[in-house]
Specification:
alpha+beta; NADH Oxidase; 3 domains; four-stranded antiparallel beta sheet; 13 helices; globular; binds flavin mononucleotide
Length: about 375
């Protein structure tokens, strides 16, 4: 497999398959597979995940330091991003010949754990897993205009099945619903951009092309020049681009060949993780067919509008993300932090001295188990 190089810092964005630690244990394998997990999409490319690897288990945690309180106050999209990373991890394990089991944990845990995955036994990957795995490094968000070409026949039905297989629902927006949805998107844009905290957060996660940071949105991915990205924090402090953004998104909704709303059957953290896995599966399937995605976040992110979106589409499920897919120009990959930066170090617990004395020098049960920092 060719290595895709991220433009910023020249860091490899995709791990090399030939680096598979063939002589390593399950923890080494899991760390290796995480190289694909971190290629998942996340709002503002905040990469809000932390992983723990212990034996044959990897655990996925929310990283509260990378939350986006202005645009995502309930951590809904943060949890979806972690779900997307979990799907990549499952696919990487499958590609390298491992059956896995995984569990999305009920939300609200104080430690932020969202899911765990375990390596089970060896088995050959299926063709579907291979197709999705191969699309991981090719998936892109494209905010530039998409082409007017129709996607292959049957693709939308395939995407809907993908969402359903992951426990979510995909609702294509019909032509007759376009005008109403365009209104909601425009209203959402105006509402969000009028909020100085949303503008400040956006500016904080925008990067100039030469930035050494390996997170956030590079200027080129937003269609901005470096100079514009550099000046953006000042510009967004004094001006509200809501009207311009609303008009642009209204046109995007009208021009989209395929406009989709992904929903979940509940609206709790575990549902968001499930929705994130479903979203990623849909995006990978689309990427495999050469299509990129472009998100229209505002009507789902403003709670009052999310209710109206649900009514307008007559969905029983809770809308979690509205996006269009289509053929776009060639986009470069956005940067990612290396796996070492997102895996928590595990240290062996020192055996408690008093207990060693009681057990006659033999390590008591539990001593030597790992503890995370
Ligand atoms: C749940 C979720 C919501 C997102 N919402 C938006 C959005 O509203 N607008 C947008 O431009 N990008 C949105 N994105 C895309 C991210 O900005 C993008 O994934 C990130 O910049 C990394 O780029 P990449 O997808 O090309 O790897 C969203 C991504 C996720 C996972």
């Amino acid at each position: 497999m060719a290595i895709a190089h991220a433009p910023d810092g020249g860091a490899p964005a995709t791990p090399r398959e030939s680096d598979l630690p063939v002589w390593g244990g399950p923890a080494d394998l899991l760390r290796f597979f995480l190289g694909w997990a971190v290629l998942a999409p996340s709002r503002h490319n905040a990469q809000p995940w932390v992983f723990e690897v212990e034996g044959d288990e990897a655990r996925v945690y929310a990283d509260p330091w990378r939350a986006l309180p202005a645009v995502d106050p309930r951590d809904r999209e943060l949890e979806m991003a972690c779900g997307a990373a979990l799907l990549n991890l499952r696919l990487a394990a499958a590609h390298f010949g491992w059956a896995t089991s995984h569990e999305v944990v009920a939300g609200g845990r104080r430690d932020g754990m969202l899911a765990r995955l375990r390596l089970e036994e060896r088995r050959a990957p299926g063709p579907d897993e291979e197709e999705l795995f191969r699309a991981i490094p090719r998936r892109r968000t494209c905010r530039l205009p998409l082409e007017g070409r129709d996607p292959p026949g049957g693709l939308v039905a395939r995407l809907s099945r993908d969402a359903a297989e992951e426990g979510a629902v995909l609702r294509p927006v019909e032509d007759a619903e376009r005008a109403a949805i365009a209104e909601l998107v425009a209203e959402g844009d105006r509402t969000q951009w009028a909020d100085g905290r949303v503008r400040a957060e956006y500016a904080r996660w925008t990067r100039t092309g030469g930035s050494p940071r390996r997170d956030g949105m590079p200027a080129w991915s937003l269609g901005l020049s470096d100079a514009a990205a550099f000046l953006q924090p000042i510009w967004l402090r004094v001006s509200d681009p809501g009207a311009v953004e609303a008009e642009r998104d209204r046109r995007r909704v009208a021009a989209a060949r395929v406009l989709l709303c992904l929903g979940s059957w509940g609206d709790h953290p575990a549902d968001h993780v499930v929705a994130g896995q479903a979203l990623q599966r849909v995006l990978l399937r689309a990427a495999g067919a050469g299509l990129a995605a472009c998100y229209l976040g505002s009507p789902v992110e403003v709670p009052e509008l999310a209710r109206r979106l649900r009514d307008t589409l007559g969905m029983r499920a809770f809308p979690q993300v509205l996006f269009r897919v289509g053929y776009g120009g060639t986009m470069r990959p956005t940067p990612r932090r290396p796996v070492d930066d997102v895996v928590r170090r595990m240290e062996p617990l020192p055996p408690p001295p008093a207990m060693i004395a009681v057990s006659g020098g033999r390590a008591p049960a539990g001593a030597g188990e790992a503890r995370s920092r």
